[in-house]
Amino acid sequence: MNDPDRTSRPLSDSPETFRGWRRPPPCSSAVKFDLAKRQSSRLRTGHVSVSEREFAMIPGRDAFIGRDAALRDLDALSRSSPIVTITGTGGIGKTRLVLEWLSAGSRTDTCRAAFVRFDGLTGEAAVLGAVAAAVDMPQTKGRSYREAIAEWLRDVELVLVLDNCEHVVEEAAALIDALVSGPRKLRIVATSRVPFGLPDEVQVRLPVLDEAAALDLFRYLARRRAPEIVLEGKALDAARSICRAVDGLPLAIELAAGWADVLPVGEIAAQLGGGLEILQRRGPVTDRQATLTTTLRWSHALLSPRARLLLRRLAAFPASFELSAVAPVCAGDGLDSTDVLPALRKLVDHSLVQFDLRAARYRLLHTARLFAAELAREADEFETLRRRHAAHFTALAREARAADFVPEDTWLPRLQTEVDNLHGALATLLEAGCGVDALETAVALTMFWWTASRHREGIGWLRAALRQADGAPTMLRAAAQFGLGFLEAHDTGDWTEAALELDRGLALLAGLNEPGSDLLCGYLLCLRGECDIMAGDAEAGLKRCQEGADLIARHPEDRWGQGFAAWNVGFGFERLGEAEQAAAHYAQVVATQRDGSLVVRMIGTQSLAGIFEVRGKAAEALPLYDEALSLCNRVGLSRLGDVHGSLARLLADCARIRISAGTEPEQAKALALQAQATAESLQDAAAGAVAAEVLRMLATPTPEVGIFRRQAAVWVVGFGETQAMLPDSKGLRQLRLLLESPGDEISAADLSALADGEPREIGRGEPVLDREALTAYRKRLRALERLLAADEDALDEVQRERVRQEHDVVARELARQSGLGGRTRRLGSPQERMRVNVTRTLRAAIAEIEAVCPALGGHLARSVATGSYCRYRPVAAVEWLFR
Q: Which of 221, 469, 549, 629 could bridge to 435 as Cys pair (CB 3.0-4.6 Å)?
């Protein structure tokens, strides 16, 4: 049984948000509860038509009776007017109408739609945050929230549905006005008890059901509850009396019909008639709303005592909820935890609570929530309920942070589903003056807001909590500064402003000697270094990142931190042009997250693939890009900011690398088309351009035909319609071997000693390594040594063996070439002679071809890379004829 005094306990005993700081005693201030003052929002990823989940949670969803004319009016007006408001009293079916219109087959256009619920929300930040999430806006780029949404939707063809606006009329009206100003493809449909009063607004005024339609709805719903019921004679008269008593309100009709398997229809009519008459004598001004309230009270009075207790306590939830959350919030003081499920089932049976079978979640309609909240206030327990709700969901946030959100494909969807409840918990804490608890929760959710592209909401909660957390521990305030810097950078792209936030965090930690302070300092330094790198000072940034990585390395148990540090150091090396060093650190990121963070592993894999691609290793980059895409889809990410890109970019990368590797053209086309569609949705112009280029390359009807055929002592070479003949040479034989293996690296030794009886060339022994070459060789040797010293997981066996062979070649060559007094020796090793001679031979052969067949020579000059290993990577598709 739940402890009735549980609200006097600390909000959570879960691990600290950052290791090393101790939580202060819980806030003891009395919580000021007010349903109209909570802030939360609803996560919606992407542009959606109404989801099956939304449609499944509407009352009498398979009985749409008496609204055909209103449905036609809504459809016609929505195509001719930018703003359509469906108005009417509570319970009249406004949401039901718009959901029916959005469902398949009810709309005559195919425009995408985004659906946003405002019930449970208060304040401009909550309203704008819910809309931003619904339309998948990734960042504000430094603009105000409203301006950013208006700009994001400027050229988007979309129907935006805003549901239950009556309690946020001013906030919703200001947003709508900004959205429809100027030429737009956007259309807005809203539901509200009152209109907004905007210039271009048209209304669909929803009347009560006429007597025939009301009777049809009651008959349908009653038979669903009691299939054997017969509505004839007196029973039919009683049904008509019920419909008149509830003024034809659909929700009131459903509440009454919900008792058809418990009470005779005549008894329902008698009870409703008497109760409504008493209430109506109080005044005619709010007759219909009073009718609904009385129907709710009547239905509530017929419930068991435990069901009544549960209904009023469910008012603590600002949004939908799962069964496991009900007992921690609602049980105790007369309601045992074992009573919760039977009572909840009764509430669902009588239409006071809705249940979504697919998602296994419950919710109260906005009207029912207001009614339940009134009951809770009358019982003087609303404050206790909201405090319990806050305790449950702040504990959830800290539990997620303690686990580093790993595995993210479990944690992130769960937090996305509970985002309204999490925001409601934060609002409760702030209203109660519990700033430290609110700040702890806000900090714990930093990574969630980043991965869910809800940066601005996270920034708002962090700043609000900091304003009330003067007595917060230094470590917690420094952690909040890290969160602000992290989210600001990814939301606005202003790395200079982010650096200021991080500097404040570092200043707080200066001289602090608490357990875990070095770890947090490492986080701040790594991100501060990234700010320098983004500002163009890669050397200073790399130095900071390395300092931070050294601090984080003291805490090997923090695997997320190990990956975070390794990536930032690798990023610094990449910006300095140190590709080998960058690749080694990106490989370390992947190695540290094999059983860790899917998001960090995705970032490391994607970054490593990019290095391989730049170095011309398309065959090695391709599986890495594919792995990154698989991880991105597994977690359900759409965008991670300007540095790490978007889903559209990953799709485009996966398409492009197949072109570079000369493989899987059909798969490349499918990926490019998907990238193009995703880029349009995410407004990612760069990814869209890459996808378009891939499609352009694939659209070539047939690849160019290249001829490279040996006939006795001559070679026939050609490209397109041009052909020529050349005498046999070693260079042509070497080119033939490269052309037969596109993308493969072939050593200079193999090319120099073709198995055709030709002797190797010895070379003339002239100097080949000047001072610049010696510097480059030494730099390369150091990079190879670091790779060999790296963790075993950083390189597979094939890669490690290749690195080892190259290390031996470079080391021997340096030993031969470095003489006394810094003089360079003459060409000594066979390996170096082969490298030089193969390069010269290939270049000479290409020049000879270009003289007689310029198109072929140009293609080879752009596609053949030489060195210790040579490679043919075609810049355009070619079908070679070798015989």
A: 469
